[in-house]
Amino acid sequence: MSRPRRIAAALALGASALLLTGCFAAPPQTAGTGAVGDRVAVAMLQPPRSGLTPFSDDAFKLSRWRTAETLVQLDAAGDAVPMLATSWSRADPTTWRFTLRDDVVFHDGTALTAAHVADVLTRATRASPPPRILDGVDLAARADGDDAVLVTTGVADPLVPQRLSSPQLSVLAPAAYTGDRVDPVGHGSGPFRLTAVQGTTSATLDRHDGYWGEPARVAGIDVTFVPDGTARAAALRTGTADVVEAVPPGQYPLLDPALVHEVPMPRTNTLYLNTARGPFADPAVRAAARAAVDRAALVASAYEGRADVAQGLLGPALPWAAPLRDDPSYAQALAARPAPAAVRGVPITLGTFTDRSELPEVAVLLEQQLEAAGFVVTQDVREYSAIEADALDGAFDAFVLSRATVLDSGDPVAYLASDFGCGGGFNISQFCDPGVQAALERAAGTEAGPERRAATARAEAAVLAADAAVPLLHERVIQGESARVGGVARDPRERDLVTTDTVLGAP
């Protein structure tokens, strides 16, 4: 029986997981060698939503399977490093030149060319909807000879290389593009060749021995899409899956602790305070709310200890953020906050949504903490689609939101500007402060690297000094890995999973 069918069987009989352990034998393998017979079985959370077109969020699956590649990729700090492009330079404020590898052959045997890369980037700008990373960006591309591509933007943009790392800008072979349709099957350039996709059920990939880089150590990947969290956990328990995405926290106690790994996510659970009207227009009242919050209690209760207490807006998924808070200027900014006001019977409305199951529980705990400090809390909890417009219009005094802090560029400045800039499109706090706006603009205009990260930390401090939002906790995701698999990526950005370093061996 094939690996996908074994997983499917485990899903169908998830309630009888113990019975399954004797039904399916592990495939032949050579311990620790990554021998040709070895294939990795992966149970993924979400099935494809857009036919695996790279212009959609399905692109992240192609990236996690290492079948589609981009011009550049990001290192752990979020800096751009070579992938299909070997180097890049800035020709003028709005133009970048990317030099391409000369040894890349797509899975269908065609070679990578500058003209084709320019065509793919142009197609991305015309996609409907366009890739998120291009939202609001006036980008154009053209070949510069046979081995380079010129990328121009309407205004100076120091993040062009980071933007081109987005999986939604992956480059597939020319034959993948037919009209408005993009077919990734057999048309990638990575170490694994996508050979078949069975709708929203499964996908199969084989090692590509003609890969331009280091070859994969396993023979292939067998993917099954498993939306049900209990079934994914059952597949891990029974050994019918080697790698499991997003194990539900409730399943954690039922699993061998050695098989589960918590990965910090670039997502912060935040209490946004309405700074434009209502009680929280007063900075001292905002300070009272901030002082009332017990972050550790939220983590212990709503997240069963599987989250990180927030020290700022940016969490451990961005490892450079915490050390920058040791700069004396950061502490000085926070020291300027007003003292908390004495609050007695101040009514506030607290909103959140049901789509993330933990948030209503967080709201209940926050209500208790805020009422203990003297606030009188009325909750409004709905589905996100029914509450988003009101939240953005400032209908609530406070709003609890689970917010991604980096977008596809791997850079958090866009998030900070969107949520706390005077013209921000997601400004739930209704916040506009000249000093914060100046700090955000300085960060946005700084070249990528250490100086930009330092400017980002200063902008974070300016936001927190105004108590426009109270960061509560940083979320984690639980990734399952069987005892026989090694070298699986634990990537906070969810771009890598099975890599060329992944290997199978006897437990």
From TrEMBL:
Gene Ontology MF term list: peptide transmembrane transporter activity
Keywords: Signal
Keyword Signal: yes
Keyword Signal assigned: yes
A Pfam family that the UniProt record links to this protein: SBP_bac_5
Signal peptide: 1-25
GO BP of this protein: peptide transport
PROSITE patterns named among the record's database cross-references: PROKAR_LIPOPROTEIN
Domain Solute-binding protein family: 81-425
Cellular component GO terms held in the UniProt record: ATP-binding cassette (ABC) transporter complex; periplasmic space
Protein name in UniProt: Peptide/nickel transport system substrate-binding protein
Originating species: Pseudonocardia alni (Amycolata alni)
